[in-house]
Task: inverse folding
DNA sequence: TCTCCCTGAGAAAACCTTTTCCCAACCGCC
DNA sequence: GGCGGTTGGGAAAAGGTTTTCTCAGGGAGA
């Protein structure tokens, strides 16, 4: 794509001048001590009179001295930066996750490099090389699918790697959502509400989470002695929600019992299901309860009625991943393996109140 | 929030060992030359026999040598990193923008620090201080609103700053979308299609873009000799789209002419408008055309019919911001001011075909 | 008064790379 | 053989900080 036309409204002022940061050497010279003493004064190390220490500190303060992190990193062999790889350009999943990572690390003084690798191996390698050159302390890999690998190998980089919401290398540490647990939350909630015929409309069979959730769905129904209806699989779209309702509720024989609850694989499908039910004059939640997945707030709150949905706690997942990387970087040992974080059910109005409530 | 329960599935393998990167000194020693010669060999500088150069290069290759970017940065007084500040946790606007920034910079070897500052001045200052310590070459500020300032002052940091899709400091360089131009695209498109009574349903009056778009709407109608209907302002929600349709189409006197087109302030409102029209049996686009704003793909493609919408070209905006920062960092002068980037109309099926088509 | 120890602070090395300057050897030419 | 020029390569400083080692001076005890 070429450059695009730009309409400029120039102001008449000058841009900010670029000034050189003040160095420890200057602070030391002005305070009348050596750089060694100045360094120790500012870091609370070494021995010196209290007067000397405060004089140096005040000088540094007055000059606005900030230690050069590059020099410190060089010496300490630790850059206090990490790389965050993602292929989720759209960001519905990765942005909360990234925010969680950033939150967990900023207080430790660690900054996060954002690496958008798309699904392009060349781009991914470019970013990984840049991270290696910049001597990041570790790497977090994240993606838009829990069962797909990023297009790059992070196994033998010589620095710790953590996977979050993406397919890990073997022997790596990974954090993922507990999709089966999340599905259990939803279906058990329906059971508690007294729903007896609970359907499941989900995404494509090529997604691992679809099977994990469907399996949990079957288990919970079996545990509660309820009939299992074979899950309907299709695209992750509103349109599929509409079509699924057609399949479930427009049965031509008329004799088949209709569902009184639909557990959907994501919020878009749920949105389609709710709209399709309303168009048929079927009351939600009175006649049919609906629960979605992802708790995509802007969608869940726009459905009529607002959608109950399973939240994968992605920000918390990002935070855990950040903390785990931190401890790995700190040299603490950690067992490889996959950590599943629990989901939570966000109850709104599409699933109905308990019978006793 | 406390730590959450984690279900672990440990594997039995060992985590990857951490190995020290190889330095130029080691390469030089093994190749039997001095570090100076090794450096020059790898950078194509200096004079030496071709044999020496290739021997050094092969040694470096074999050892997997990667120059330490921290040391280079220290020397060059340039870190090849920039900070990207955002307060858009949700990311609908900032993620495409960030991807654009990253794209523009990665090829120049510049990496991007992601700083999620929420709307918290303390957090923002924390991140800015970290960026200063890490000696970023520049800062890009971005947000979720074009008319709100980030909770931190970037004016006298001593490094270049660029604003993208957020309110700039005076005398700064900023890139924003041309909202008036975008609105013109939409309304002029309706005019070309022969629509005569074009309504405008937009967001809250507290948003600057609402006024910019409404003004352009009025201008285009005036230029085309069409009646101006006072824009309806409300929240940025589907529900408001429904209510606006009620106001526009359920007029009690029955004599008032109904709109044959609705230009909406965002895609969620447009979605509400389309749904409400369908519920009234009003055909879209045959009887009423609808155009949205933001081109939020997942919403625009899920409306029935798919929504024509104004795209703000946020990825391109991010790319321009990245390139501008790069040239500023390179020392090239640039006039302060606000650069407006054109929007583009993404035509789907909600606005109708031209009369002759 | 001499020695020992402690205090306060500085010198210098280290981290890793780039770049400028310098030097030794060699060549050809007169 | 002396000389200027070229060629191949090295020494050292620079960038900013931390840390270890060293040292001068002073007080106290013998």
Result:
């Amino acid at each position: 794509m070429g450059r695009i036309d730009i309409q400029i409204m120039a102001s008449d002022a000058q841009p900010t001048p670029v000034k050189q940061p003040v160095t420890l050497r200057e602070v030391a010279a002005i305070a009348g001590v050596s750089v060694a003493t100045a360094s120790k004064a500012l870091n609370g190390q070494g021995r010196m009179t209290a007067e000397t220490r405060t004089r140096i500190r005040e000088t540094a303060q007055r000059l606005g001295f900030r230690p050069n992190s590059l020099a410190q990193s060089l010496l300490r062999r630790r850059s206090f930066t990490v790389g965050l790889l993602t292929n989720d350009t759209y960001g519905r999943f990765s942005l909360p996750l990234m925010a969680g990572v950033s939150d967990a690390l900023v207080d430790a003084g660690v900054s996060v490099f954002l690496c958008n690798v798309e699904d392009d191996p060349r781009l991914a390698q470019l970013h990984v090389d840049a991270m290696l050159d910049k001597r990041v302390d570790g790497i977090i890999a994240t993606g838009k699918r829990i069962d797909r690998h990023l297009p790059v190998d992070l196994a033998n980089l010589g620095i710790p790697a953590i996977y979050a919401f993406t397919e890990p290398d073997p022997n790596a540490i990974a954090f993922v959502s507990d999709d089966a647990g999340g599905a259990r939350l939803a279906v058990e909630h329906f059971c508690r509400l007294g729903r007896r015929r609970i359907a499941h409309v989900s995404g494509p069979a090529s997604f691992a989470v679809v099977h994990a959730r469907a399996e949990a769905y079957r288990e919970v129904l079996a545990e509660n002695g309820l009939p299992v209806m074979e899950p309907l699989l299709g695209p992750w779209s509103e349109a599929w929600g509409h079509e699924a309702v057609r399949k479930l509720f427009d049965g031509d024989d008329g004799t088949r019992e209709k569902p009184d609850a639909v557990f959907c694989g994501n919020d878009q499908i749920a949105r389609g299901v709710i709209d399709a039910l309303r168009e048929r004059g079927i009351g939600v939640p009175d006649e049919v309860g609906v629960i979605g997945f992802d708790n995509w707030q802007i969608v869940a709150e726009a459905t009529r009625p607002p959608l109950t949905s399973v939240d994968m706690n992605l920000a918390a997942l990002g935070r855990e991943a950040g903390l785990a990387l931190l401890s790995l970087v700190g040299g603490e040992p950690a067992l490889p393996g996959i950590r599943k974080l629990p989901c939570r059910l966000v109850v709104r109005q599409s699933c109905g109140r308990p019978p006793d409530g």
User: Anything to note?
Assistant: DSSP finds twelve helices and 13 strands in chain B.
